[in-house]
Amino acid sequence: MLEFFGRFHPVFVHLPIGILLLACIFILLSFTTKFVNLKPAIPIMLLLGTLSAIVSCITGYLLAGGGDYDGKLVNNHQWMGISVAILSMILWTIYKRVSSNSVLGAVAAILALLISVTGHMGGSLTHGADYLTAPLKAGGVKGGVAIPAIPNLKEAFVYQNAIQPLFQNRCYSCHGGEKQKGKLRLDQQEYILKGGKTGKTIVPGKADESELVKRLMVPLNDEKHMAPKEKSQLTETEIKLLKWWINSGADFKKKFKDLPQPEDIKPVLASLQKGEGAVEKVKTSELPVEEVKMADNNVLKKLADAGVTVFPVTQNSNYLSANFINATSMDKDVLGLIKSIEKQLIWLKLENKKVTDQTLTAIKDCKKLMRLNLNYTAVTDAGLAQLKDLDQLQSLSLVGAKVSLKGINQLKNLKNLKFLYLYQTNVNKTDLASIKKILPKVSLDIGNYNIPKLAQDTIIVKAL
To answer: In the chain, N or C: fewer CB atoms in 10 Å?
Structure first.
């Protein structure tokens, strides 16, 4: 119960900040003839401010005792808050007893300074110690990107150059040196391995059994989801990187070149070199104009339990992106869940070998679908017939699927289709002219590019 009352601290703390600062301003203004009429209001303001400051100190002490906070900053914030309460009580006591404007003005100025410093410390505890100064740091990441570009990727250290910056920019505000929700710290190796209240944060070699990954994969509206839905979420790329690091042993000292690099992680590593490994920017024009209600949380939970990753396409949006790449099953029950989110689903990644022509019957009514990935699936020309009514579809990727010109011909009514990826399909170069006639506005990508060599190109490895 004490911890429960402690959580009211953010509610009470704003009253003394506002009313005491205003009282200090009134005191300084009342020294002039123009504002002398403010004096009668000052004593009651100081009394209310003092009482609320005392309540704030008590609730703050109870909150700090809950175990989610630690470090020097908490201690300093606590004593500064107590100092504000004591000095406001002194100022209230002496206000009508001391006639010296210089004394009252000096005490009011010191109190205002104490309130400002204490408030800043409280903000730092909530948002991180460098919250105010982070944008001013040279070399800091920008635009929501959690991991800065890593040009020389092979020689870079996985944890130091990628995982640690990811934790710092996405996790430290709740699980850093000053604040530890659930008694979890992610700012040092020993604490990461130790875990929090729920046990081991990561299980080296087993990402899917790691509590950290489990919390990332639960639905956004679930109270166990990390990060909280009000904060920046880890992107699909960042989650892939984190899972790859854990599955590779979660080593804190190895370089990128020392870890195995399966095909599915190579695009992620390539994006890190360019500094594009974070937020995928979504323009408003790329989303449906009409609003949609939030998807059923129970449905999202069932999808997560089946290994399906579901995220909002952008913050403050109910439109969803679903990824079946790690789905453990593609049975009727799982496919039936798609029906339940068909109004919210606009991006769908079905890059899974279990996906067949029959699977596509489950998405034929997803009329708002704008992006569809069917790479390396068992989909054939017969299955593409299920897509002919998805008139909002803008991007379709069929890389590695056994489709041909016959199947592409069934997509001729998709007037909004802009991008079509056909690498490693049964579509050959002679078919491209026919596809262009069928889909004149579509940008075709058949891969298998040959990059011409330049005269200065060499395969000789030279030491720098």
So the answer is: C
